[in-house]
Amino acid sequence: MEVNVQLRDEDAEKLVLGTIMINRDAFEEVREMLSKECFYNSFHQEIYKAIIQVASSGDRPDMITVKNKLVANGIKFEPYLFVSIASNQTFDLGQYAARLHDLAIRRKFYEIGQYLVSNSYTESEDILDVTNTVSDQLSSLFKSSSSVISTINEGLESVYHMINENLNGGKPLTGTPTGFEKIDNKSGGLQKSDLIIIAGETSQGKTSLAVSIMRNAASLGAKVAMYSMEMKKEQITARILSMESGVPANEIMYSRLTESQLQSVDKGIGKISGKGIYFDDRSTSNIDTILSSIRYMKLKFGIDGAIVDYLQILNVNMKGANKEQQMGDVARRLKNLAKELDIWIIALSQLNRDNMNPVPSLARLRDSGQIAEAADVVMLVYRPEVKGKSYPGDFSHVDTRGTAMIDIAKGRNIGLLKFICGFNACTTCFYELDNIPISSGMVSDEEDSPAF
């Protein structure tokens, strides 16, 4: 049955398809809005079907990958015709995608109307059946858009379900475990859609804490992608292996190991082999490249979270913007991506130095207070042993040797928390302490840092 020509816009179809194949991340922008039926032209439908298949496999749907998928699907076409479609581009992708979505609904209106007209001339179907069929078809037209809209009652039902689970002890953690009981009890683990900032001064252990959390999460089945602007995958892997084996990472990489060290390393390899930890050697310090890679990791491997080390070293394409604006933009984009992909993202950040009072605080986040505003959780790392200082406040009696203070200075939905954990400088591993070591004497500000 031919549909009125006014209910199609093949020029808009070409613009949408071409833009998706040209612009990185364009497909994710309109994926929820479009379906194969949004394209009237049959060849355009096959192109969009190929785009979905390529993206679902974890690859980017560009001109080459989509063409190859069309060939693999057995679709016969003229190359010049495909190139002419793939060469179209618009800066208003959302506008044209919405038009295609609306036209597809109107074509469905026509089909439903024809069904009603045909049943007005015959009694072959029961009136109630006709009414139910039409009602179901009309409801399905807006199913995709209504699926993300819910009422307060549905929200209450979900919260009530969580309360019952907590009472029954049926699900101790709702998120990815960090390996630190105090954090997990407070937050339920690393929660999907959360942006977590780990901040500290240079040499305080930001990267080590992030790698420790990654190792703990992966050992319990989580899948994590790691992006480091300063370390290669071999160096990060050596750190994880060091935490498992007890052999220092620098010795693993650069020294001739003893027989006992080799045995320890072999056991460590057995523990971490096959764990869900991923690196992207193609990633650079460009934020757009990293965001694209995280999308790829989610599609290809179904990652639970990603770690970015660290914010201040990232390159941001914002001409005319100062560093504060750039860092604020990066933090917001990471937060939006975490929410969109339903994963958690840990981003590391430097703190401005304060030699007079080295105790970390939110106010010292380097380059932008907007980082803290975008974050759901901000963890501050403090190892006073490095500075020859003592712990502040309630922890002033704690021995600083081989310990660190983790300060959750911002915790949206979880509150604030400070606790002491252990730190092994040889393996750069943060770990839980069964007993907090008490200092034999107060560490004076003038004392040198004790040697390990």
Automatic annotation (TrEMBL):
<dbReference type="Pfam" id="PF00772">
    <property type="entry name" value="DnaB"/>
</dbReference>
<keyword id="KW-0547">Nucleotide-binding</keyword>
<keyword id="KW-0413">Isomerase</keyword>
<keyword id="KW-0235">DNA replication</keyword>
<dbReference type="GO" id="GO:0006269">
    <property type="term" value="P:DNA replication, synthesis of primer"/>
</dbReference>
<keyword id="KW-0238">DNA-binding</keyword>
<dbReference type="InterPro" id="IPR007693">
    <property type="entry name" value="DNA_helicase_DnaB-like_N"/>
</dbReference>
<dbReference type="GO" id="GO:0003677">
    <property type="term" value="F:DNA binding"/>
</dbReference>
<comment type="similarity">
    <text>Belongs to the helicase family. DnaB subfamily.</text>
</comment>
<keyword id="KW-0378">Hydrolase</keyword>
<protein>
    <recommendedName>
        <fullName>DNA 5'-3' helicase</fullName>
        <ecNumber>5.6.2.3</ecNumber>
    </recommendedName>
</protein>
<keyword id="KW-0639">Primosome</keyword>
<dbReference type="GO" id="GO:0016887">
    <property type="term" value="F:ATP hydrolysis activity"/>
</dbReference>
<dbReference type="InterPro" id="IPR036185">
    <property type="entry name" value="DNA_heli_DnaB-like_N_sf"/>
</dbReference>
<dbReference type="GO" id="GO:0005829">
    <property type="term" value="C:cytosol"/>
</dbReference>
<dbReference type="GO" id="GO:0043139">
    <property type="term" value="F:5'-3' DNA helicase activity"/>
</dbReference>
<dbReference type="GO" id="GO:0005524">
    <property type="term" value="F:ATP binding"/>
</dbReference>
<keyword id="KW-0067">ATP-binding</keyword>
<dbReference type="InterPro" id="IPR027417">
    <property type="entry name" value="P-loop_NTPase"/>
</dbReference>
<dbReference type="InterPro" id="IPR007694">
    <property type="entry name" value="DNA_helicase_DnaB-like_C"/>
</dbReference>
<dbReference type="Pfam" id="PF03796">
    <property type="entry name" value="DnaB_C"/>
</dbReference>
<feature type="domain" description="SF4 helicase">
    <location>
        <begin position="169"/>
        <end position="437"/>
    </location>
</feature>
<keyword id="KW-0347">Helicase</keyword>
<dbReference type="InterPro" id="IPR016136">
    <property type="entry name" value="DNA_helicase_N/primase_C"/>
</dbReference>
<dbReference type="GO" id="GO:1990077">
    <property type="term" value="C:primosome complex"/>
</dbReference>
